[in-house]
Amino acid sequence: MEQSSLFEPTHTIPLAVRMRPNDFDGFVGQQHLLQVGGLLRVMVEHDRLVSAILFGPPGTGKTTLAHIISQRTGSHFVSLNAVNSGTPEIKKVCDEARQLRRFQGQRTLVFIDEIHRFNKLQQDALLPEVESGGILLLGASTQNPSFALVPALLSRTFLFELQPLQDHDIAVLLQRGAAMLKTTVSDEATNAIIQLSSGDGRRALNLLEGAALVAGLGQPVELIHAEAASSRKAIRYDKNSDNHYDYISAFIKSVRGSDPDAAIYYLAVMLEAGEDPMFIARRLAILAAEDIGNAAPNALTMAAATLDIVATIGMPEARIPLAQMTLYLALSPKSNSAYLAIDAALNDVRTRGVLNVPSALKNGAKRGESHYLYPHDFGGFTRQHYLSAPRTLYEPVLNGYEIKMAAFYQALWGDDESHSGT
User: Fold this and answer.
1) Beta-sheet strands, E only, within 142-282
2) Is residue 81 classed as helix, strand or coil in its secondary structure?
3) What are residue 110's DSSP bridge partners?
4) What is the pTM of this model?
5) Which DSSP state fits 289?
6) Range from 9-13, 165-169, 225-229, 299-303 that averages highest in pLDDT
7) Which DSSP state fits 185?
8) Is the pLDDT of residue 422 over 60?
């Protein structure tokens, strides 16, 4: 744990800083990187670390990891924040690092928080030292570095992605924090803080510290104290229980039912409760195909774009494209004809057997042979049998763009008994 000044009262240092561990065994979360045999841990323990970028949501341990790495590698630690550090500060740190390595043989680890805020000129100033090994760069970012850093710097660094802390990780932090504060935390208060922190360990410990202050020195922390320490109310929403499924069900049914107010409300509940935004985005993409379909074909393209955007920017900004997509789908014309058609076709295959392919359609059949009629020889369409027995599987829904599709379908096949769905 970090040492405080002899003249600085311990209670003025945030609990999250006081609890900062000195080794990997005390670190909570990110087991995909730090488990025994994990790449980052192996690189540090064998002193083979190269410059790297740690990226992920706030409160996932980026700064703590930087301190542990500095201590494990015996490096001189320098911390900069991209918000208030410019090119002169970078050059000064690099000059001092060269002198320290030359005269004392010690490597300098430069930790740059919010490195995505550096402009191209500032990033370029780091390149010579990173490339030569003059400094060991460890950047931290809440944004995907692939979109925030210049290619030259990216190619010289390893990327390590940190994930939001799991509920059990937050629970461990709260137990340790309560012990340091010489208090206890009820199960109800623990669950509330877990939900309110949304995977952010720093926020969880800040809430605990505030709740302990409200409860009184050494007094048990209860739900009322946890909620008093937050500007938000804890929502009773367990991602592994029935209300998780109830809310996503209500959300989807509200979008399908074209009620934008209900849909946006359920979206807000889920986001406030810490639901995975990618889970919501995936369900919207499914809905765009299942319930909007060809009544508004562009909906599926937009839903796919929303998936990419949410994955790229994360929360809290992801709430905006999710809201836009929710309202667009809620107020789009609806058609489930594609969903019904594929299910009808699958049922036919499973229950009636597979039809033989007509000889005219088999691989190798050419126009003018085997009775195959090449549509483009007839202006783009000519009637012929594409199934060896008639089936009616697609039935257009007369809504939105599908009205035009149905009219086109009728014009092509209207009096053909094998296409009686029209």
Assistant:
1) 158-161
2) strand
3) 78, 137
4) 0.59
5) I
6) 299-303
7) B
8) no
From 381, 385, 384, 409, select the one nearest 395 (Cα to Cα).
409
CB 261 within 8 A of CB 267: no
Distance CA 22, CA 121 (A): 34
The Cα 52–Cα 56 span in angstroms is 13
Give bridge partners of residue 111 from the DSSP assignment: 79, 138
Q: What angle do CA 216, 221, 224 make, to 5 degrees?
A: 95
Q: How far apart are CA 314 and CA 198, in angstroms?
A: 13
Give pLDDT tens digits for 43-87. 888 878 788 899 888 889 998 888 888 777 777 888 888 877 778
Short-list 241, 308, 322, 314, CA closest to 280: 322
What whole-number distance in Å separates Cα of residue 145 and Cα of residue 56?
A: 10
The rounded distance, in Å, linking the Cα atoms of 73 and 48 is 9
**Strand order across the 76-81 sheet:** 76-81, 108-113, 136-141, 52-55, 158-161
Phi/psi-derived region of residue 408, left when phi > 0, alpha when psi is between -120 and 50, beta in every other case: alpha
Q: Residue 352's pLDDT band (boundaries 50, 70, 90)?
A: very high
**Is the bond preceding residue 316 a cis peptide, omega within 30 degrees?**
yes
Cα torsion through 65, 70, 71, 77, rounded to 10: -120
Task: Give the single-character DSSP code of 27.
Answer: -
Taking the C-alpha atoms of residue 84 and residue 112, their distance in angstroms, rounded to an integer, is: 11
What is the C-alpha separation between 235 and 269, in angstroms, rounded?
Answer: 8
